[in-house]
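yo

u said u wanted the structure for the complex thing, so here. seqs first:
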Amino acid sequence: MSLNSPWRSDFPALSALSAEGQTYLDSAATSQKPQVVLDALMGYYASGAANVHRAQHLPGERATRAFEGTRIRATHWLNAASPAEILFTRGTTEAINLLAYGLEHLFQPGDEIVISALEHHANLLPWQQLAIRRQLKLVVLPLDRSGLIDLEQARQLIGARTRLLAVSQLSNVLGRWQPLTELLPLARAQGALTVVDGAQGVVHGRHDVQALGCDFYAFSSHKLYGPDGIGVLYGRGDALARLKHWQFGGEMVHSATYQSADFHGAPLGFEAGTPAIASVIGLGAALDYLGSLDAAAIAGHEAVLHTKLLAGLAARDGVRLLGEPELALASFSIEGVHNADLAHLLTEQGIAVRAGHHCAMPLMQTLGVQGAIRVSLALYNNGDDLERFFSALDKTLELLR
Ligand code: PLP
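structre next:
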């Protein structure tokens, strides 16, 4: 299979970056955007910005139609039952904070929230802080050696006091699909709510929230080739009905007096204030773009690149891979070489990779490392990107060793 991405030319930033000598291998942090997304952003502003839902005039009606069009596209993308199950948030982080506040009233002291050892801070800290506020117990599911949540242990740890399970679908550090089809029923059997952090998972393949059987699923547009500042929280209708409102202001209120108010239900009741209208429209364009591509061809291309990435790392002395990544990325450190030095010298050679704790400090502690370098791939990467990375890595190691 060719290692050249047939989609690369759809992304103008790739040639701009390469003209600057930059090789972009940090798409798990954020992705580049296709021209159609840039056109949608420009089109909205150039044809007349207007607020959504409130204006009667033509630009307002046009903006509202485009904005709500994205909600319909997201509904189809995730196979949600209805557009009313799609809430726009600022991103995955805000979606999970919304849940931690909106569901707070359901918890009693001593109840348990279950997460896993590999969670991004976005799916750890909101629950940790809720646990502190309500005197709950935060239970952390351990991992096996390959980087999967250990199901045997999960069967022991998910129990009668479990009220909520929140886990990542695909780790941003370990690059493995988590066993959600086995895990989520364990929580459901206890009557607990289930939350899936889809920030990385949504980028790779199509996911059906009804088949997954989760109550909530969150993702960020900027990782899915869309604009930043916007994300989606899917909530199953009856799970959304249990949420209390958390941010108050325009748009979300049905009627108000000085002393009291009553609020819309989902979705508008959870979208207080003027939303990121252009970004929502841009996300719609990203979903249209992705929907027009051959998903199997994308997965095939990414798999070939990933194999090359793993083979290249395995061929170099002293590389310690974190877990056993199966797609999209690889995180590693190199014996006797400080990550910061490695990152610095790669950066000097125009290689854009991520270094550090990857917003998962407790995971780094569990793995016994200070941090790691992460190379992450997207549909627009070519084999050449990896060759440039490996030649920069070899030069760096020659210098440092
Ligand atoms: N969860 C995971 C697994 C992530 O990788 C990220 C971002 O890196 C997030 C959550 C947070 O996403 P955002 O910063 O877009 O809210």
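The longest helix spans residues 58-78. The radius of gyration is 22 Å.
cya
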